[in-house]
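re the bet — no i am not wrong, look at it urself. input seq straight from the record:
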Amino acid sequence: MSVVDFHLHLFSRPYFEALAAFSPLPGSVDERLARVVEKAKLELPPPDLAAHVARWIAEFDRHGVEHVAAFASAPEATPALAEAAVLSKGRITPFALVNPKAEGVAARVRTLLETKGFRGVLLFPALHHYELGAPECRELLGVLDEQRAIAYVHCGLLVVKLRDLLGIPRTMDPRFANPLNVIPAAHAFPNVRFVIPHFGAGFFRETLLAGAQCPNVFVDTSSTNSWIATQPTELTLRDVFERALGVFGPERILFGTDSNTFPAGWRADRLAEQRAIVDALAPSFSSAIFGANARRLLTR
């Protein structure tokens, strides 16, 4: 069965260069990146975007991945992701990381949605310090509502390894990362599909409450889900799936891997682990979680 990965970071060379330029570490951008590559044992994407996309497409073909929802993980990487989506010939649906407080962001997002094939945005309230229900978010959410678009809202724990390696100070404020903050926005903008990734990344109970309260709130299954270690009671990934199914049902759970760099490539291990859990709990839900739900949301 082919799958749709609803959570992939297509880290391009412009993304790495943008973060390296922001780094306080000594040396040129290239020197900073060289040190990061050595420390993290990862491969820097080539300047040739077509070659980078071709490598990802080969990964998808090898693992039976039909389609991916991919993020530009910094504003500077948005043009490269738009081009990558075109080069993929329909295999990649792009999403832009935006700060709702930035001037002109709603107009820029409208252009991306209407002319560049983007399907939505990625929001980091903890990084940019805002609540989703605040007045500064209304214009952006209004555009998403008109377009029946998707808003990923990263909640809970937020650690960006590349930022840490580059010495960029951590400014994340988890007080803005509570999934309960999604509820007022979901009520006010019912045509927006709000997706909380990583099962809430530590705010699991709050994610369940948001899902119970709002039919337009979804959850994705991506990443290692190491946040489970932060919970006050013992919890397994199987427990997480079982409780999520009890609240969201099979129609509002979206499979994702959080794949991002090579040589790791596309994380088939996460598919194997999660598919085994779903097949043990409710095999009839597998087609929805690993493909059909994503296809429905990504269709305009």
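see?? Residues 49-63 form the longest helix (15 residues). told u. also The longest strand covers residues 65-72. so pay up
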